[in-house]
Design the sequence.
């Protein structure tokens, strides 16, 4: 326990890095936030809905993205530390721990699907036969994931630089190219592959299936609040975080909507989205313009953007978990230990071992991916617990601490947070409706699986941590900085 | 909330950060060059045109949207491309599941009740370009449930 929280020699608190070097700008934080939430990866999936993709992104943006952004902007401008701090201040440290645990635990199923996507995309551009090679898949997953852990262990500034650069290279530039080429396609007099008339603005309404589609899209914006944990890396957090948040909201909307529309103009999305995925959509796109060599380049750019997003998720929730655990002693000292760069490396390694095991199962055993998708429902349900806590915290803090200094006060916060709270509850309820992958299985069995899984991951495990904690595990030390 | 007079976060030293940035950029460029040389572009030949014609007819007969022949050739070439490449592989199945999900790019990704036309169109694509994979594919589809969610 002697070394707990004490960074090694290179990062002694007495040796300060010049401020101009280690702070991050609000633009960088905005790009990090965008990188955590948006990419071109779902564009072909949403292109299937044609013009209705706009509706499917805008309605969830009004009901979930805006409330999340406004609430996060106000809370982060008043309290450092992110969601654990907000919920701790408003309710209790135990619920603060639950909130950040939910944010952290849900990433365990995110990494395997992301790494499988990376491995699949890389195989497509190098040699599609590799997709069935288990050794290839294992090597890609292990190498990339652990390289990500190593980079994340170098601190917020390092992650900020890479994630913002990969967002530009892997999302903004290719997204702009797609949209420009799409407009050229229409400008040449070609008919759009998907109808673009007024009758196509709304998705088909078939009751519960349409509701599942719309409400589940609330989760497209999950993660907007996550980078608030880095708010103290800004020079003027009170003013700069809200600015970063609003910039990120604009970028996220543009990245989700415009490329999906552009693909639906050029590519027969309805005919290929189930099995072909994003790369074949891009291939069809670029073949039309005679620039098929751009397909592999885009593939690599998309991979870069995905990995940039992964870095932000590695660095964010684990930092929040560390911060509350140091204050309240919720995790054993070995998990609170910082590396020489002031990063919670042991939490990342512990998470990495579990993630690697799941990812390898996912990659090697074809049928695992079907079962795996039920896991992704369970973890998004767990994440929604955090959102409920966050919106409740925002309402309580505004009522109970109205005079606490805030750099930004969201307009109509109580109403906005209530909308976000109801949207979160709706997404939570819809999570119990069996998706396509569950086939014709019993809905009762599905509800039981999701409910029990959620209880286990989201409630029982954090309960065990709280139950087993010891007073000596509290190691918060203002002299020991966290990167 | 107070503004910071000095940075409390140590992080990696500047030389290491620069080395990581430069190293990452180099790796990316090298892999992109490798990909350009290794990538096989979709074929645009007589067989691709013939297959596109067959698919158009089948889509029309099924009452599904029919893209232009050029669009079909650009997307599926003469062999179906990725649709027909290793459909049983673990990564391919992971891709199917991605196609049945919501519009999230990262942690919010979650399955939905997907559109039945997508499954029907895929079946026709596979029947046209790689019929030997059709039985396996339809067997997989039988385990899934579809609804009418796209116009």
Sequence:
């Amino acid at each position: 326990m002697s070394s707990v929280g004490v960074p090694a020699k290179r990062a002694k608190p007495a040796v300060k890095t010049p401020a101009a070097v280690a702070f991050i700008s609000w633009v960088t934080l905005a790009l990090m936030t965008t990188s955590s939430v948006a990419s071109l990866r779902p564009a072909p999936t949403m292109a299937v809905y044609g013009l209705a993709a706009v509706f499917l992104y805008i309605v969830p943006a009004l009901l979930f993205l805006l409330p999340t952004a406004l609430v996060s902007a106000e809370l982060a401008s008043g309290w450092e530390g992110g969601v654990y701090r907000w919920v701790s201040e408003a309710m209790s440290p135990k619920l603060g721990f639950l909130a950040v645990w939910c944010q952290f635990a849900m990433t365990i199923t995110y990494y395997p699907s992301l790494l499988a996507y990376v491995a699949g995309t890389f195989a497509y551009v190098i040699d599609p036969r590799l997709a069935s090679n288990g050794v290839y898949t294992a090597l890609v997953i292990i190498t990339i994931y652990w390289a990500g852990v190593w980079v994340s262990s170098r601190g917020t500034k390092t992650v900020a630089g890479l994630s913002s650069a990969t967002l530009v290279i892997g999302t903004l530039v290719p997204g702009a190219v797609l949209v420009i080429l799409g407009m050229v396609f229409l400008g040449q007099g070609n008919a759009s592959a998907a109808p673009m008339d007024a009758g196509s603005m709304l998705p088909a309404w078939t009751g519960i299936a349409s509701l599942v589609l719309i409400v589940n899209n609330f989760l497209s914006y999950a993660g907007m609040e996550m980078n608030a944990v880095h708010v103290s890396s800004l020079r003027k957090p009170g003013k700069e975080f809200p600015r970063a948040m609003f910039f990120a909201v604009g970028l996220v909307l543009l990245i989700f909507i415009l490329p999906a529309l552009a693909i639906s103009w050029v590519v027969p999305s309805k005919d290929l989205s189930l099995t072909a995925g994003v790369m074949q959509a891009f291939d069809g796109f670029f073949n039309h313009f005679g620039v098929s060599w751009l397909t592999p380049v885009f593939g690599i750019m998309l991979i870069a953007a995905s990995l940039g997003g992964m870095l932000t998720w590695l660095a964010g929730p684990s930092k929040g978990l560390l911060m509350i655990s140091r204050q309240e002693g919720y995790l054993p000292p070995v998990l609170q230990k910082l590396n020489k760069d002031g990063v919670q490396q042991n939490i990342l390694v512990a998470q990495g071992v579990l993630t690697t095991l799941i990812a390898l199962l996912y990659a090697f055993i074809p049928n695992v991916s079907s079962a795996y998708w039920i896991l992704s429902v369970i973890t998004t349900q767990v994440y929604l617990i955090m959102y409920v806590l966050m919106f409740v915290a925002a309402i309580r803090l505004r009522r109970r601490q109205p005079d606490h200094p805030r750099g930004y006060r969201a307009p109509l916060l109580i109403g906005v947070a209530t909308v976000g709270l109801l949207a979160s509850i709706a997404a939570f309820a819809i999570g119990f409706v069996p998706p396509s992958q569950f086939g014709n299985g019993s809905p009762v069995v599905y509800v039981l699986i999701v409910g029990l899984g959620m209880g286990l991951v989201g409630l029982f495990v954090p309960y065990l941590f709280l139950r087993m904690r010891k007073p000596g595990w509290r190691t918060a030390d203002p002299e020991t900085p966290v990167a | 909330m107070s503004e910071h007079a000095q940075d409390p976060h140590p992080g990696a030293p500047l030389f290491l950060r620069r080395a990581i940035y430069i190293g990452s950029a180099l790796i990316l460029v090298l892999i992109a060059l490798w990909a350009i040389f290794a990538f096989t572009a979709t074929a645009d030949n007589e067989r691709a045109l013939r297959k596109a014609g067959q698919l158009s007819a089948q889509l029309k007969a099924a009452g599904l949207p029919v893209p232009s022949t050029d669009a079909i050739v650009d997307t599926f070439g003469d062999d179906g491309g990725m649709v027909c490449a290793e459909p049983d592989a673990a990564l391919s199945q992971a891709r199917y599941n991605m196609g049945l999900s919501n519009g999230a790019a990262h942690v919010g990704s979650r399955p939905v009740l997907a559109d039945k036309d997508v499954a029907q169109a895929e079946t026709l694509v596979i029947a046209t370009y790689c019929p030997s994979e059709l039985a396996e594919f339809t067997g997989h589809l039988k385990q899934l449930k579809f609804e009418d969610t796209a116009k």
User: Anything to note?
Assistant: Chain A is about 65% helix and 0% strand. Chain A touches chain B through 155 residues (CB under 8 Å).
